[in-house]
C-alpha cells in the first residue's frame, strides 16, 4: 500500500517492478476493497440478502400453506422431511414425503402421529397453491414447493392449532426483520438530532439533553418496554401496533447514539473548517448539515448496522413475554411463546425452530456490521 496526495493506493509489487502506471483509489473504493476482503462480513451480507428475499419480499411464494389457516386434523403434527430414498432403499430423483397416520393416546388424550409408508407424495416445484396478492397488487397462486392434489405439506410441522410452522416462520420473519430496520431508522433520526444539538450548542441545551439521556438510561429496559406496551389501546389495528412497538423500541436506544454523536461533534466544532464557515457568515443549520452530520455519517452507519440485531432480540423478547406483537400478527417472538413450557418442548421440539432463525439473523447482522466498521475505520488493518 502506497500513499499519494492523501489517498491510500493499493498496488501489487509486480506492477511497481514492471513500471506500470497505478492510480489512486477513492475512499469509497478503499472501503469496498477492505469490506470484500472480510469473508465473514461478505457471508453475513449474503445471508441477510437471502433472509430478506425469503421473509420480507416473497414470503407468499416460499410459503407452502396459508400461515393463518388452521387444520384440526393436524394438531402438533411433526415435520415432513423431504426424502430421496424410500423404505425399500430405492433412490428417487424427485424428493418426496410420507403421509401421517394419527392415533389418539388414551393416556394423555393427545394425538400421536406415525409415518404411513403406504402414502408417498412427490414434492413439486413451482406449483399452484393458495391464492395471495404479490406486493398487495397482483393476484397469484404460484409457490416454490407443494404436493398438489390439495395435499398439505408441513416441512417443519404444525402448532397447537394445526397451522403450518414453516409458513408462520416466514411471515414472522417479515415482522421481526422489518421492525429492526424501522426501529433503527427512528433511533438514527432521534439520536443524531439530539446528539448534534447537544454537542454543537453546548451550555444549557447540552445539560438539558444529557439529563434526559441519563434519566432514560437509568430505567431497566424490560419494565420500561412493558409499561409502554401496556398502554397501547386494545382496539388498535395490527399495523398500528407494529409501528407503536417500533417507536417503543427506539425510545431508549437513541441515547447511546446521541452520546457518541455528541462526542464527535464536540471535536468537529473546534476544527478550522468550522471556524472558517462561521467567519464566512454560515448559519448554524448550514454548519450542522454541511459539516457536522456528514463527518459523523460513517460512525452513524456503523452504529446503525450493529444496532439492528439488538432491535430484533428486543422485539423477540417483548413478544415472547406477551408484551409485543399480538395475534393475528406473528413474529419469531410470538412463535417462541408457544414453546414456553418444557413439557411442550419435550413432546414437540420443532416448536423451537424459530429460535434458530433468530440466531442466524443476529449472527449475520453482527458479522456484516463488524465488516462495515472495520472497512470504514481508517485505523483498522
Calculate the terminal CA-CA distance, rounded to whole Å. Answer: 12 Å
How many DSSP E strands?
A: 7
Low-pLDDT runs? 1-9, 11-17
* Overall 3D shape: elongated
Order the strands across the largest sheet as they lie in space. 3-4-5
Radius of gyration: 27 Å
Q: Major sheet, described briefly?
A: 3 strands, antiparallel
The SSE order reads EEHHHHEEEEEHHHHHHHHH
Put the structure in a nutshell.
This protein has helices at 13-17, 27-37, 39-57, 59-62, 165-201, 203-218, 221-230, 238-268, 272-279, 284-320, 332-337, 342-347, 353-376; strands spanning 2-4, 7-9, 83-85, 91-105, 110-122, 124-134, 138-146.
Question: Please, could you describe this protein's structure?
Answer:
The chain has 381 residues and is an alpha+beta fold. The protein is built from 13 helices and seven strands. α2 crosses α13 and α5 packs antiparallel against α10.
List the helices and strands and how they pair.
Blueprint (H helix, E strand, L loop, with lengths): L1 E3 L2 E3 L3 H5 L9 H11 L1 H19 L1 H4 L20 E3 L5 E15 L4 E13 L1 E11 L3 E9 L18 H37 L1 H16 L2 H10 L7 H31 L3 H8 L4 H37 L11 H6 L4 H6 L5 H24 L5
Antiparallel strand pairs: 1-2, 3-4, 4-5, 6-7
Helix pairs in contact: 2-13, 3-5, 3-13, 5-6, 5-8, 5-10, 6-8, 7-8, 8-10, 10-13
Amino acid at each position: 500500500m502506497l500513499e499519494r496526495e492523501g489517498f491510500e493506493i493499493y498496488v501489487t509489487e509486480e506492477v511497481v517492478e514492471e513500471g506500470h502506471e497505478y492510480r489512486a483509489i477513492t475512499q469509497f473504493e478503499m472501503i469496498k476493497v477492505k469490506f470484500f476482503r472480510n469473508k465473514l462480513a461478505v457471508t453475513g451480507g449474503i445471508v441477510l440478502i437471502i433472509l430478506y428475499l425469503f421473509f420480507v419480499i416473497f414470503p407468499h411464494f416460499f410459503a407452502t400453506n396459508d400461515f393463518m389457516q388452521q387444520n384440526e386434523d393436524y394438531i402438533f403434527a411433526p415435520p415432513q422431511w423431504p426424502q430421496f430414498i424410500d423404505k425399500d432403499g430405492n433412490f428417487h430423483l424427485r424428493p418426496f414425503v410420507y403421509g401421517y397416520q394419527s392415533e389418539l393416546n388414551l393416556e394423555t388424550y393427545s394425538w400421536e402421529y406415525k409415518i404411513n409408508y403406504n402414502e408417498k407424495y412427490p414434492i413439486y416445484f413451482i406449483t399452484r397453491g393458495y391464492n395471495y396478492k404479490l406486493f398487495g397488487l397482483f393476484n397469484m397462486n404460484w409457490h416454490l414447493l407443494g404436493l398438489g392434489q390439495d395435499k398439505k405439506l408441513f416441512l417443519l410441522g404444525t402448532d397447537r392449532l394445526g397451522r403450518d410452522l414453516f409458513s408462520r416462520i416466514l411471515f414472522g420473519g417479515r415482522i421481526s426483520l422489518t421492525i429492526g430496520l424501522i426501529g433503527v431508522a427512528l433511533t438514527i433520526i432521534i439520536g443524531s438530532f439530539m446528539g448534534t444539538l447537544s454537542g454543537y450548542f453546548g451550555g444549557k441545551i447540552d445539560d438539558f439533553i444529557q439529563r434526559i439521556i441519563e434519566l432514560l438510561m437509568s430505567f431497566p429496559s424490560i419494565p420500561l418496554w412493558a409499561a409502554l406496551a401496556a398502554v397501547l389501546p386494545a382496539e388498535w389495528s395490527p399495523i398500528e401496533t407494529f409501528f407503536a412497538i417500533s417507536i417503543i423500541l427506539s425510545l431508549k436506544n437513541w441515547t447511546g447514539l446521541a452520546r457518541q454523536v455528541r462526542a464527535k461533534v464536540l471535536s468537529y466544532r473546534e476544527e478550522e473548517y468550522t471556524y472558517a464557515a462561521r467567519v464566512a457568515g454560515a448559519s448554524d443549520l448550514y454548519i450542522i448539515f454541511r459539516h457536522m452530520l456528514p463527518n459523523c455519517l460513517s460512525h452513524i452507519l456503523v452504529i446503525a448496522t450493529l444496532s439492528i440485531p439488538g432491535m430484533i432480540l428486543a422485539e423477540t423478547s417483548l413478544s415472547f413475554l406477551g408484551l409485543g406483537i399480538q395475534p393475528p400478527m406473528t413474529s419469531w417472538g410470538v412463535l417462541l411463546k408457544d414453546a414456553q413450557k418444557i413439557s411442550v418442548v419435550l413432546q414437540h421440539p420443532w416448536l423451537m425452530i424459530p429460535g434458530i432463525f433468530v440466531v442466524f439473523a443476529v449472527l449475520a447482522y453482527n458479522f456484516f456490521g463488524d465488516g462495515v466498521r472495520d472497512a470504514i475505520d481508517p485505523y483498522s488493518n
